[in-house]
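Page 42, continued from yesterday. The earlier attempt failed because a stray header line got pasted into the input along with the sequence. Redoing it now with the clean sequence only.
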Amino acid sequence: MKKILVAAALFCAIIAVAKIAILLKKRRESKTEGLISNSGRLSRGAASAALATRVASRTATTKIRQLVSDSEESERLENELAMKTSEDVVKTLGNMKGAMMKLGQLASFVDDGLPDSVKEMLAQLQQDAPPMSSELSAKVIRDELGGEPEKIFKEWNPNPIAAASIGQVHKALTRDGQIVAVKVQYPGVAETILADLANIDLAGFATPLIWKGLDLKALTEELRTRLMEEVDYSLEASNQTMFSDFYEDHPFIHVPKVFPKLSSNKVLTTEFVEGDRFEVLETWDQEQKDLAAESIYRFAFRSLYRLHAFNGDPHPGNYLFRGDGKVAFLDFGLVKFFNAEELELLLNIIRFSVITPDSAKQRNAVEKAGFLVPGAPVSDDDVAQFMEVFMALVAQDEDMQLTPEYASSVARRVLFGRASHASVVTYANIPPTFALLQRINLGLLAILGRLQATANWRAISEEIWPEISAEPKSKLGKLENEWWQDTKKRIAQGEFIHLGTNTPAS
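This time it went through. Structure tokens are written below.
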């Protein structure tokens, strides 16, 4: 029962402290236009402080009432507290948008330790945030594309079909008759996120007490840089175009094409794709969920190891499911590019952890990649045991079912470790270059765990790992193989040069 209070209180405390920091910051001159002005950010800070006060008061009152209640009544009061708190958080964050809303989205599916009632309420933030008015979205179109939506497009639906933390999506018809999804950025949200990130060190609230080896300054700067890239829709258009070109004609992975002439820094127009949301997928039979999970897994790791790029925002709202493993992947605002040397550091960890296990070489690889302070006073065996949970997915050439419990165990190891591995956590680090890869440990595994997905993850990985390139064994692997042979020829001809690193995928 304590987990409900601890999870809710910590979550709201982090939000409140962060927003109070923003509230106390010296403000520039307020803007008079836009959805979120400097004065609006003052209101955001006040709203967060008020949220923290309400939660603290509600928690204290509940604890007092529990002192004079029997066990059944005490449990009812605690569940009631969790529900009221989660409703309050959803309402407050949903209207804030920007960085704080993203925190709520992540919390909604990362850790199985959160009560179901809290996760269900927070899950509303994944896709259905409160939208902006039709007048405001029309103004963004007018400012960015040079005309009213009804003139730019043959048909325009003023009511959004989805609303999230940075923008909302409208359905439209182009002048040449193509159905498109038009993502319109909330006015002022870029400035709001910049202000948030200038004052918030999310990693710094708890980790200094646990991760003494963590380079917080470098890590926070990397995360700040990546998150600020999300508000540049021109960059997102380039990212999405690269992924769309790479996965062209793929049998079950689809990335919607971009319409550059109908896109700008704050408007992104892409091919409209039909499909079911994640919560619908969860009602399908297990075979269909397994196929969808394998598709998501293949997309994440083939993109990483073959395209040298990682889409760092895996959460349920970024997928549309069409059955038999067919998945459309959305939202490419948070993409990290890697060069060959960086990927070799990661592959060395895999190599000496599970391919040709060697604890001394594994430790050396972990240190060289920057995940462990060099010369830390811990044994090679301690490091190997600490790494086991991360490597369990690909340790054996056999089917393995992922569960919410496994996903949570990885999340807790990343954040806190277990008591038996506390000394390793003390000297652990998250290298800035690989910061977004922790989203695999947290977001991706949480998603696959929710699906209770079963697959031979080792066999799938051996297809993708460059030094092995094994023959496919699964149904989807065999479907993908012909596409991959053609794509390798395109790579050999010099396609897919990375935007940031100028490094060809190989």
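Notes: The chain has 20 helices and twelve strands.
Reminder to self: strip header lines before submitting.
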